[in-house]
Each structure stands twice: as structure tokens, then as C-alpha cells.
Description:
elongated; 5 strands; disordered N terminus
Amino acid sequence: MTDPDRSAAAPGADVLLVEDDATQRAIYTKILTLEELAVEAVTNGKEALGWLESRDRPPRLVLSDIMMPELDGLELFRRILESPAWYMTPVVLMTASPTRDRLEAARTSTVPPDYFLCKPFSPKFLGKVVLAIINRESPLFLLRHFQRERLGTRRDLLGLRKKLESARENGRDEIEVARRNIEAIRRKLAELDRMRNQLSHFDGMRTNLVDDKIKSLNDELVSYEALLHENAERRIEILEEERKFLLANKDLEDLDRKIRILNQTISRDGSLLIDKKSA
């Protein structure tokens, strides 16, 4: 099957392995290396975050134990989902103590993990799971991929909505103030012009003072007219943001449709993607 991400992947790790037990860390690294995957191994969630922050692009998959010191796998998973840079990264969680509370905490997150591995598991099964997720070889893994995309699209929509609301509100206020001031200045200029005509015949000094005031008001008028012009240009920018918002909303509708279809497929056919017995 064609790998959907291989051509776009940056040099570096295919899998970020997060495991505090040195023996298991070495075993899992060897298993994945035999599957021709580049593995970077760290000992806890804190180290994993440091590794992610130091890279330009995330790995193709994070394989993490749940129970670890300093920062456990559940918190690491939550941080990955919250990050605009990492949220599209598939996550597999491993545990030797699959308590209901621990699993439920992950399953009820905005997007559940791609898979739970209960220790011990066979080397062959680990390799199959990781490759199947990376290659999206199951409706379940494709579902998780689209759910992550939907999460990011919703965040984009929220940001665009706030930006549009702020731009519209600020634009309305600025335009209203500028128009009121322009009208007031033009009225004042008309009054000063009449005054100047009256004074020009007998009071040159006061005429000069009126001329200075007229010049000052004309400068102010130019600045407000320039502000109106800037707002016209800003309106074009707002229209572009509105276009982006509509496109993102359409993307969200398309993702909702794909997710609905995949949920129906999984409900009908089941989500079992790998035969554990054969593994």
C-alpha cells in the first residue's frame, strides 16, 4: 500500500518512542527498526515534549507508555492534541495496567488515541499496529486522522471568527468617528471661510490667524480622509478573511461528512483492523 506521508516526511524520526523502562525501550526500538522505521527514544513525557519542541516537524507517530515519571502518557497526549504544530500526529498509548479510569480519560478526549496497546504484546503485533496507523490501513485510523483534521479546522474557524469580529467592530468605530469629524471640520472650515472674507477688508492680522486655523483644519481633514481610505483597503482584507472563513467552514462540513460515513462503516463492519491471533 502507498504510504500517504512518506514522500512529505522530513528527515528524522518516523516514531517517537516514550518509555521509562530501559529494557522495554530497547526491545520496542529494535522491533520498529526491523520494520524499517527510524526511531527516537526518550524516557518520559517531559523529554518527549522537549524533543518535539526542538524539531521543525513532528514524527509520523508517537508511541508512549502511560505510567511514567515527571509527565505521564495521558498528559503528553493532551499536550500533543493542544499544539497547533503536533495535533495531527497519531498517538498510540501503552499500559500494563489498563484501568477503566485511565482508558476512559483518553477515550473521552476531543480526539481519542489511535490505539491502546496492553502489555505484554507480541513484537509482530506492535509492528503491524504502527505500520497500519502510519499508512491508515483501517477505517478506524482514517477516522482518527479526519477527527484530528476537524479539530484543527475548528480551531482555525474560531480564530478567524474572532479576527473578523474584531476587525468589523474596530472598522465600524473608526469609520463612524472619522465621518463625524470630517463633517464637523467641513462645517468649521465653512464658518472660517466666511469669517476670513469679512476680515480681509480691515484686519490683516486676524486674517492671518484665521488662515493658520484653516490650514490646520485642512491638514486634519486630510488625515481623516486618509483614514477612510485605509478602512476601504481594510474592508478588502476583511472580505479576504471572510472568504477564508467560508472555505474553512466548507472544509469542516466535508470532514463531518467523512467522519459520519466512517462511523457508519465501523458500526456496520466493526473496527478490528488486525487479527491478534495471526500476530
